[in-house]
Design a protein that fits this description.
Radius of gyration: 22 Å
Order of helices and strands: EHEHEEEEHEEHEHEEEEE
Number of helices: 5
Strand content: 25-35%
Helix content: 10-25%
Shape: elongated
Structural class: alpha/beta
């Protein structure tokens, strides 16, 4: 098998793509890789494309970008990929949910916002309608809240590595893929997210808002709010003990702790421990008379 022809093309994006490629190299499976397509996503703080490219260079792996012309391997595997892939070869897509739940966009973010007890990864056959293909492998892990998105990505990256290695072993040994159809009646859909979806709703309770903030942190832009009319990013926060408030006006600052505001929520209080402006400069407050909305 050591002389097996390289036959796998990997479409890679984000830290999950980087982690999978690193793991395959460490597991001495890189000789099965024909080439790699590197994704670039300018909508996140770090898309890890430079790290993936450097890893390819250091390990003599051919890499391309999605607009380039190149010959694909017999098998195509998409890791954290955001775009359509047009191929006649066997295409396996990795999806950040326990399908058939959370078909579609930003499934991990939405699952964390909803505080699902389990999250996971599904490897499935590509289908004409997105995320409806037969399931090849699926793994899950329990989640304790609150949890930051960066930590959740680390956890499911382990699942990505585990599943991808199993698929590589199947391809290497020329074994048939077994799969099963999804239960469509149990399906749910996860909508795409844009800048509007970063806005904090201060009418919600403090625990829900905290998890919303944690779910949109690095490598994403961070949850947003208007502070006295100017947009800011709320990066970190802690829950404070609530007090009896007459005429509860949500979004107003009620206390200050080391120039950081304690904000009134629909239920509970939230201490904002890291606030950034549009230039990623950290902000501190000097006045109680501040409103977040």
């Amino acid at each position: 098998m050591n002389n097996i022809e390289k036959k796998i093309t990997l479409y890679l994006l984000s830290k999950k793509g980087l982690d999978v490629l690193t793991y395959l190299i460490e597991s001495k499976k890189s000789y099965l890789i024909k080439n790699i397509v590197v994704g670039i996503d300018k909508n996140v703080q770090n898309d890890y494309s430079s790290d993936i490219i450097n890893l390819c260079k250091n390990n003599n792996l051919d890499y391309y970008f999605k607009k380039d012309q190149f010959e694909e391997g017999n098998f195509v595997i998409a890791i954290s990929w955001r775009w359509l892939i047009h191929t006649k070869n066997y295409l396996i897509v990795f999806h950040d949910s326990l399908l058939p739940k959370y078909r579609g966009f930003a499934p991990l973010v939405n699952a964390l916002i909803n505080q699902e007890k389990f999250v996971g990864v599904t490897a499935l056959k590509a289908s004409d309608n997105y995320d409806e293909g037969d399931i090849i492998l699926q793994e899950s892990i329990p989640i304790l809240y609150p949890i930051k998105i960066e930590n959740a990505i680390e956890k499911i990256s382990a699942l990505y590595k585990s599943i991808c290695l199993k698929i590589f072993n199947l391809i290497e040994t020329c074994k048939e893929f077994t799969s099963y159809k999804q239960e469509n009646e149990k399906a749910s859909y996860s909508l795409w997210r844009d800048e509007e979806d970063y806005k904090i709703n201060w009418n919600l309770d403090s625990q829900t808002i905290q998890q919303f903030i944690y779910s949109l942190g690095y490598p994403y832009k961070g949850a947003s709010s208007l502070m006295n009319g100017s947009k800011v990013r709320i990066i970190d926060c802690t829950i404070e003990t609530d007090v009896n408030i007459e005429n509860r006006d949500v979004g107003k600052v009620i206390f200050m702790k080391d120039k950081m505001p304690v904000v009134v929520c629909g239920k509970g209080l939230l201490l904002l421990t890291k606030i950034l402006d549009d230039n990623n400069n950290e902000l501190y407050l000097n006045s109680f008379r501040t409103r977040f909305e």
